[in-house]
Structures are given as C-alpha cells and as structure tokens.
C-alpha cells in the first residue's frame, strides 16, 4: 500500500514538470527565436513479485514502480520568418543535410528534425545559429537575430552579448546603420560597389544540436564543442541569412495546449489515488486497529 503512495506521488511530480514545460512554451509563443521544449518521461524499472510459501517461490507478476520526467528536449525545427524591415534584424533560413553512411544518400528527417536508422540510432538535423560571446569569453548560440549597435559600433544581441564574426572576433561596424547591407551568406556589403567589404556574420553550424544546453534568454551553449561538432558555416552549406526578418517561435500552440491539459488531468488522477490510499490507511488505523 505504501508503495502505491510512492508510485502515485512520482506520477504527480512528473505531471507537474510536464505542465510546467507546456506553460513555458505557451509563455514564449511570441518570443523571437524560441525553441519548443518537450518533456520526456520514462518508467522506473519493474519489480518482479513472488509469493513464498512453505519454502517455495511462486511468481505472481511484475509491479511498475512509477514514472519520472527524465529530460527536456528542445525542438530545433525552424519557426516562421516574419519581416520587420529593420536593417539590424536577421534570420537564418536553413535546410542542412546529412548523408547516410550506409547509402550515401541524404537522410530524410521527419517533421521534428530527427531520423532513426535501422540500428535504432537517433540522428538530428544539423542547425545553424548566430554566434555570440558572453563577458567571460564563452561562445553561445542563438536564433534570435534582433541585434543592436551601440555608439562604439559594437553589434549586440537581444541579450546584450557581443555578436561574433566568421573569424571568432566581435563585430564592429564603422558606417551608418541605415546603410547596413548583408548578403545571403552573412557578408557585409558596400552599398556603393555592391561587393563584400567588411566582416562576415559568424554563423555556427551545430551538427549534433541535441548536445546543446539551454541557458535562457534565447541562447544555448555546448559543453563540449567537439562532441556537438560545432563549426563555422561554409559556402556549400544550404543556409541563407535574411536581413530585415526575424524568426518567430516554433511552438505548436495547439499541441502544447493539449499537452498541458493532459498533464493536468493525469495529475488529478494521481491525486485521487493518493486520497484513496490515505482514506484506506485511516480506516486501517482507526477501525481495524481497535479490533
């Protein structure tokens, strides 16, 4: 009976975390570059129950010991691009491909940007990010291209981080912001000649985006860049920088609303199970205990 209390309590904690994740997604429906978070739940290991009588053991069956929220996974699929018309606003449009080692053909990813090969290995679509740097010199990655330029010409992200160029150095602009022109590869263009003349936006390609860690404020970091296979974008990469656009959140409002309501109902169901066990224990103490 006590085990049942623990199982129901574990279910309540898991559903609370699912509900919190869904409300976080809903709160960021209009946050530029926000990536939806999905909560993944797993069951604790089953327990084999046996009855021992007169020195013999008879298997009764398996008992599930509850569930727990194992991890939260970010969905990096691209959000809609919305035109802002501001010269310092940028969005990345990308369709990066990965070749299947077995066939040599491009992998066909599903709508969530992942592919499961015949061996059960999950492969995620590579993603492109703007590269920014915090005050400690750590590289961070974001899809929020709403940049500003201070009086010294430093290009800053929405979170106040310095935007890096393709050589890993902070970008500094010398001309008027009104004349800022950037081509599809992120090169700064001289308005007079129409040719590349200046630093190039530092677009990082993360081959294994599942290795990124969410930091908040729309940025991610890679604890081990070598494992995440982070590199700067090359001309052959199928991606384009769109000036005067911003990437909207990729949250599926209908789906996260369904998830939130499902988590709430499951939380209520576990709560009623605990109330049942509580009333049963109360009877055991107050009534059976008097006999």
Short description:
By secondary structure, the protein is of the alpha+beta class. The protein is built from 3 helices and 22 strands. It comes from Paenibacillus donghaensis.
| Biggest sheet statistics | 7 strands, antiparallel
Count of discrete domains: 2
Order of helices and strands: HEEEEEEEEEEEEEEEEEEEHEEEH
Strand content: 25-35%
Radius of gyration over C-alpha positions, nearest whole angstrom: 26 Å
Strand elements, count: 22
Shape: elongated
Class from secondary-structure proportions: alpha+beta
Total of DSSP H or I helical runs spanning 4+ residues: 3
Calculate the mean pLDDT score and round it: 87
DSSP helix fraction: 10-25%
Q: Which regions have little confidence, pLDDT < 50, spanning 5+ residues? A: none
GO biological process, one term: bacterial-type flagellum-dependent swarming motility
Keywords: Cell projection, Cilium, Flagellum
Pfam families: Flg_bb_rod (PF00460), Flg_bbr_C (PF06429), LlgE_F_G_D1 (PF22692)
InterPro entries: Flag_bb_rod_N (IPR001444), Flg_bb/hook_C_dom (IPR010930), FlgE/F/G-like (IPR037925), LlgE_F_G-like_D1 (IPR053967)
